[in-house]
Specification:
single chain, alpha/beta
């Protein structure tokens, strides 16, 4: 089942209340859909794949799980995974095989790829407020494919994520770390899309990723799965895991710029230090409209004075810098270990950082 705040709705399988059953009528996907639809409304395959109101949340075995969304639901959903806030109760299960090839290629989109804990949620929400574009924040189904790639499913999800409300504005997709291991496959399908690769320099990354036990547990889980691709030995210490993950993602961002040439990098430190400039240039690069007064309004609003993932918590760049300085002192030995591991196993840290800076969105 979908493990999420709406999991109980999905699990009940009660018509009109929970997951919708498929009607065995030619051309009809479901006789009952989510609660916000009319109970006697039939949905065709064309209906299902044509509108972002029908969001492919995740894959469950051979089925795709759809949940009802609208523009406001996308906006208030800080993440489109288990923390999603749908437009209504209910979910619909559709055989994946029925969907393959049904949605077409879809228009160009913009992308935010990132290394985690680097302000990507802040940037995504700022672009959403600034432009009114549909910003898809960490789609669960795309993340699933990072862990278990499947070409046909990737074609499907990329097509569905490209569906727009406003045909004059490209959607923006904010991915997450597992998706960075799918970048060659995404670039092969979407070479003309614009992308921003948001990253930290190594020392800043380590202070972000090693700052708590929860962050370290996340690091261990990711690097346990992708360790072979990162060149990690089994049982590596946290500093080495973080160094390998940082380098692996940096290398993938650099390779992405070769196959998806409209890729630019953004040092997260500049996003926090010069948010107006960073947000403005990010919007322009991704093809979104920018008005100076709108940028000023977003910067002066609550988004930049609260924690982007928890809007009820006050947090600004001064708080971030204070926290980072304290963590840096605590993990000074691990920073040295990470730098030594990178230097011993490939290009030096400084060289990688210089290569990333050559693709900079802003100086």
């Amino acid at each position: 089942m979908v493990r999420s705040p709406f999991a109980s709705m999905v699990a009940r399988g009660i018509p009109g209340e929970g997951r919708c059953t498929l009607a065995m009528v030619p051309g009809v996907i479901a006789e009952r859909v989510a609660a916000r639809y009319s109970r006697d409304m039939a949905m065709t395959l064309a209906d299902l794949v044509s509108s972002p109101d029908n969001y492919l949340h995740s894959f469950e075995g051979d089925a795709a799980i759809f949940v009802p969304m609208d523009r406001e639901a996308y906006r208030r959903s800080i993440f489109l995974d288990a923390r999603i806030s749908p437009a209504a109760e209910g979910a619909m299960q559709v055989p994946v095989e029925m969907l393959l090839g049904a949605a077409g290629e879809g228009p160009q989109t913009g992308w935010i790829f990132h290394v985690a804990h680097c302000g990507s949620t802040l940037l995504a929400r700022a672009l959403e407020e600034l432009s009114g574009a549909l910003v898809l924040k960490e789609p669960a189904a795309l993340r699933q494919l990072g862990f278990a790639p499947a070409d046909a499913r990737l074609d499907l999800i990329l097509s569905l994520l490209a569906r727009r409300y406003d045909h004059g504005l490209p959607n923006v997709i904010k991915a997450n770390v597992p998706v960075n291991f799918l970048l060659p496959e995404i670039a092969a399908r979407r070479p003309q899309d614009a992308a921003i690769a948001l990253y930290w320099n190594l020392a800043d990354y380590l202070t972000a990723i090693l700052r708590s036990d929860n962050h370290r547990q996340w690091l261990r889980g990711i690097t346990d799965h992708f360790g072979a691709q990162l060149g990690l030995a089994e049982g590596a210490e946290d500093a080495v895991r973080a160094a390998a993950l940082w380098r692996g993602q940096a290398e993938r961002f650099l390779a992405l710029a070769q196959t998806m040439p409209h890729t630019r990098t953004l040092d997260a430190a500049l996003l926090f230090a010069e948010p107006g400039k960073a947000v403005r240039q990010a919007a322009l690069h991704l093809g979104l409209p920018v008005m100076e007064e709108d940028v000023a309004m977003v910067l002066s609003g609550p988004l930049f004075s609260t924690y982007s993932k928890r809007p009820d918590v006050a947090f600004d760049n001064g708080d971030r810098l204070e926290r980072a300085a304290a963590v840096s002192r605590t993990i000074a030995g691990e920073i040295e270990s990470a730098q030594a591991w990178i230097g011993a196993s490939g290009p030096e840290t400084a060289h990688i950082e210089q290569q990333l800076a050559k693709l900079a969105l802003i100086g």
